[in-house]
Fold this sequence. Notes:
By secondary structure, the chain is mainly alpha-helical.
Amino acid sequence: MKEIKTGILLFVALSVLTGILYPATVTVLAQAIFPKQSAGSIIYKADGTPAGSALIGQPFSGPKYFWPRPSATADFPYNPMASGGSNLGPTNKELITQVGDRAESLRETGITDSIPADIVTASASGLDPHISPRAAFIQVRRIAKERHLPEEKITALVQNHIEGRQSGFLGEPRINVLKLNLALDNL
Length: 187
């Protein structure tokens, strides 16, 4: 009987510690130290309404916008509740067809340069909010034409939105597509 009582007390104590105290402490510290990140890294439009998160890709498909990386999430593109890649290997015929179709769609918009892989392949999470600077630069001509703006103005906008390597040495330079498209709308 003593072992049962000890077991129940230990269960209750650990449940309170790991289920209430620890999460509450981490939440309070995160909100104090990293308020923007703990709130979801929300990006706001010029009028103050939320546009989306800086951490989750958004589906832009109109010709007046920069197109993001494709999404492989289930049910609908950029579904944060179904994060995951397609799990198709590089020799899988379905992936080869998808990449070929995406490349052909880009070529139909007038892109003649070589197409970077990140604009025709989904990321491992299917939610990547960034594209490479090269993937943005190959879209400049289409967007300038659609918006009746000089290519130089769109190119300068892209240049201003290039984020460097994280901590100066991790990853590659990248551009957040949501931030870039919001800046494009504000031109």
